[in-house]
Amino acid sequence: MRYSQMLIRTAKEIPAEAEVISHQLLLRAGFIRKLTSGLYTYLPLGLAAIRKVEAIVREEMNRAGAQELLMPMVQPADLWQESGRWVKYGPELLRFQDRHNREYCLGPTHEEVITDIARRELHSYRQLPVNLYQIQTKFRDEIRPRFGLMRGREFIMKDAYSFDVSDEAAGQSYQTMRDAYTRIFQRCGLEFRAVEADSGSIGGSFSHEFMVLADTGEDTLVICQECEYAANVEKAKVVLLAEPASETTDDSTGEVQDCIKVETPGMKKVDRVAEFLKVTPQQVIKTMIYLADEEPVAVLVRGDREVQSVKLKNLLDVAEVELAEDDTVWKLTKLPVGYIGPVNIPIKMVADQEVMTMINAVTGANEKGHHLTGVTPGRDFTPVAVGDLRQITKEDRCPVCQGALELTEGIEVGHIFKLGTNYSEAMHAVYQDQEGKEQAMVMGCYGIGISRVVAAAIEQNHDENGIIFPLPLAPVQVIVLNLSIKNEETTATAEKLYQDLQAAGIEVLLDDRDERPGSKFKDADLIGIPYRVTVGKTWEKEGKVELRTRRDGTTTLLDYEQAASTITTSIQDELNALK
């Protein structure tokens, strides 16, 4: 490829629309262009990087025994109605009608379609296990598409689906995919971690996310510093420590006190109430009003804790939960915000497990300007459900080994699910076992965000000058800079080196533009090509070319005769080390 003939237009300025590093650099380096909100065109360099990820994914999926197919992006509503997700999936599902008024959607995922294929094509235990995958465009109508390829509405995804005869066999398929994903992200040259995760709208009993570790990640990860436990904060289990229950008094006897209403004029916030009553926030029960599928529910947590909404959604078994606005709270409960409490509250109530260990707590009195002291769960109120509902903190302990926890940020690039029979039972995807009896197929689902991998790689690998691509994902491996276009000998040398590298199987870009050297250096760094070979004054004076590695900036002078073989060997060794 010759720079002068390629569609590459770089920019010095940071685009106003770009909030995160990957979005900024993908636009500045000429990898993508925005069509409209959440939709991007992949320009040649961007598509080349995408194809690198696809190639690694295909190799490892095929190696794991999966078979590639390609399913339609447009899906009929009746399949989604069979599974029950037509309504449950929510507004991210883009629904529309064709000219015959039949309902369809643009596929955000393909569980329904693949289950329909399985029930049509697979009928006997002898045909199982089967793992089918595709690499295809998906569409999810995100309410706030942002961060470029990190959270767009249209994106490229690899999704695979396994079908097995039993839970045990499905567990083996799940492990096979987990191993394959580990190899994929290792080969991509990324620092990542597999963590326990919530299954979300996909469903199923068990899942892991593969997270690229990066400061700009949208997800918070909980990692034990002493064992292998790792989980998304939405899934991280809070373990109650064996310590005395929280009390609202310095009385060390632990005697349960009477519930008393006290005046707390203008005291709405936990900290102010605690200070006014001379207690700590840990001795206050905070009552939050949420809307769960539009129905109000009171959620109780300790005063210094925060509700984890995904845990709440799972406990209530609802599709959506959101914290109610103040005016909504008044309309639904006729209770004053800031003074709401669990005693005689007129709506459904659930509590975090920690709340149920408290005695003599402070709560709202459901009356403006008043709180209650001496409140004890079980005696003064009884929630309809109790569970782990709060956000874990670094002060908590590992649920496996009780070790210290670390909270860090990550970007989800892969997610694997043990689906069980959720879809196969709903859609009657069955097989005949050895005794001729019908059994529901046991399914697994395995996704990788192909386009997101490229963005995540940039978030993890960049500096003030631009992208630093891991070699396996770079759109090209080497850029040859001709710094003296008008010098015939220099131009001939650059051209010969370009040809030699191509003949050796190296992906190389020849910068043959009549531009200042500084501009060529800046563009090479911005684009992030791993190896840069400069043919310029050093060649003219000493007969040597300069090899520079983008990652660490080291430079080496090479005789021209050594250059192609040295570069080829370095690239092959680096790629082999990742396999």
Automatic annotation (TrEMBL):
Domain of life assignment: Bacteria
Localization (cell): Cytoplasm
Family assignment from sequence similarity: Belongs to the class-II aminoacyl-tRNA synthetase family. ProS type 1 subfamily.
Chief location of this protein within or outside the cell: cytoplasm
Species this protein is from: Candidatus Electrothrix aarhusensis
UniProt subunit comment: Homodimer.
Reactions catalysed: tRNA(Pro) + L-proline + ATP = L-prolyl-tRNA(Pro) + AMP + diphosphate
Listed GO MF terms: aminoacyl-tRNA deacylase activity; ATP binding; proline-tRNA ligase activity
Record carries keyword Aminoacyl-tRNA synthetase: yes
Protein name, UniProt field: Proline--tRNA ligase
